[in-house]
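User: I'm curious whether this sequence folds into something compact or stays loose and floppy. Could you predict its structure so I can see for myself?
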Amino acid sequence: MKVLLVSHSDGGGGAGRAAHRLLQAFRSTNVNATLAADVRSTHDPQVVPLGSAATQRIRLGMEQLADKVVRPRDPHNYSAAIAGALTSGLTDRTGATVMNLHWTAYGAASIAQMGRIAAPSVWTLHDMWVLGGGEHYYSSGMESRNGSWVLRRKHKHWVAPRILVSPSRWLKDQASASPIVHDWPIRVIPNPIDLDVFRPHDTALAKSQLGMDPATPSILFALTNDLSDRRKGADLLTNALRRLPQAWGEESVDLQIAILGHTQAPDDWPTLPFQTHWLGRTFDDAKVAMAYAAADVVAVPSRMDNLPQVATEAAACGKPVVAFDIGGLPDIVEHRLSGYLARPEDVDDMAYGLKWILSNQDLTIRMGLEARRRAEQAWSFSSVSAQYQEVFREAITQQARRNSK
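Assistant: Here's the prediction. I'll summarize afterward.
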């Protein structure tokens, strides 16, 4: 079996990083695999160009033109998918026997090309785009007026069901309500984590190395997106942080905040009652793991999310996570065992969860150990690779039956 993974990128955003980590998981378990990507941020020899640089510019231009014509409410949350590099020559060039599609926006794959795939294929969901119209995330019944055009093209071209992989139970449930893929086979397999890189380290030492006070408890928030990204909930977190002194009551509270992914506060960033350390932007996993090591607890305030790798990375580093009880976060955080799941968008409850963990050092340590145990059990390279291999064999059998008819 030769596996071809297809992704817009092999790093940068969460989906690209997840695709590359799956490639690493296959490599560690002796699965012959290649990743084809338009944007390559690693120097991995098993990552090959999806298309030429010239055609990439043309494809991206076509997508941008579609945005101007359709005028979606939020272009960053929308993909027309009218252009792509997903041709039969790609499988011929790589000798693939099974294809695994990941996040393919920005001209990586068109809707028509996805429907014409002749090889056995498995589609990994990183957001809701496959399930509905043009948006990558949407609330039930709240797709924009622009989604119907994309939806009609999916109905036209996606005739043969493919096997879907959802990293979270939540996204699997969303698929069951999809007008496109509600009856397609779907398996829940989480994204893998390199547990040798993302592992516990000495917290006080990490704080010192990052210029933080080793003796002061710290809360980490990691976000490579714009801090105004409503879905990621930075505004909810800042409101929760401002409520923390009140949550402590008459007790004095001395905390520090670390923000990974940005070098400085934006102009509209609110004043917080604690010292804030801006750790900068990096996609070096070792440096990211060091930032987690400097945290006593990691906050993930998303309003809507699939299986955010900030939370799985933090857990792998032995850090309790405080998040809202939404999306795929319950797949990561075991409430009051490895972290705290606050009521959705309830900033007072998030403040309580942060205070509850940070006010008891023994509890913080115990939850961190449980978080690491969960990571070793669910997100190891060997476990995730084995589950994907089973699904690939299923896809090969499915395609053979289809071809014999």
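Summary: Residues 203-378 form a domain with the Rossmann fold fold (CATH 3.40.50.2000). The mean pLDDT is 94.
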